[in-house]
Amino acid sequence: MKREGDVFLSYAAAEKGLSCNTLLAYGGDLRRFCRFLEKSGTLLWEDVSREVILDFLAWAKERSYAAASLLRLLVSLTLFFRFLKQEERIRSDPTRYLDRPKLWKLLPEVLSEEEMDALLTSCDAGTEAGARDLAIIEVLYGSGLRVSELCALNLYDVSDEAVRVKGKGGKERIVPVSTAAKEAIDRYLLFRKGGDEGSAPPLFVSRGGRRTGRSFVWRRLKEYAAKAGIVRRISPHTLRHTFATHLLENGADLRVIQELLGHASVATTDRYTQVSQRRLKNAFLEFHPRP
Length: 291
Fold this sequence. Notes:
CATH architecture of the largest domain: Orthogonal Bundle
Strand content: under 5%
CATH topology of the largest domain: hpI Integrase, Chain A
Number of helices: 13
Number of strands: 2
Distance between the termini: 57 Å
Strand order of the largest sheet: 1-2
Helix content: 55-70%
């Protein structure tokens, strides 16, 4: 069963041009599903039914998988079984009639402007680590980058007005950089040591001079969130959601936000309108004298 999974991932990389991070996520999903099948005694892909897939999703939900993670599991399995059917390795696709929740209905978690201010002021910009972390948070929030895009930034990708980003599928885009983010980067560069190897030195480096990774950024952000008194569970992607929602709430056009985020479809960006509407409704219910 593992062989079909490997073939599918090779196909997804070569024919669909999926990013390395997406392939890693799909590969992890398929490995989890294979382990689940082995424990349940299902040894052939042909024997996987709609009910088996629903059992797997229920198993994942019992283990506190987030809604977005459950959706990705379903997407991974849908693409995989569609591939098996296309290659005639199975007679019918067990995911064909499964209900698929709309991605944009999974409303993203967003920080308020006050929470964002608290997060930023929790960094000690007078130290090398604090200056670096402040610059990281300012860029994530000020330009709406994915954490993988942030970690891939090189020193010369940042200019006085914009940052050159390599997004999903290797697509490049130019994103404006806020004044606050640029000032934070300049302050960090006064401290920065190491990481100058080769012709593409990384912008953000660890204490040992190595390029920062996603888990490193995630870990540091959690520490600053706790320090700022933010009790909700947040991630680097929360800052991307916050970037988009704050732009929308302050009058930015949805198509402009789509370009800044690097979304291929405006339908993906459209979920931020639902977040704004939810926040407006909450404000109305809280402050209107006769809600």
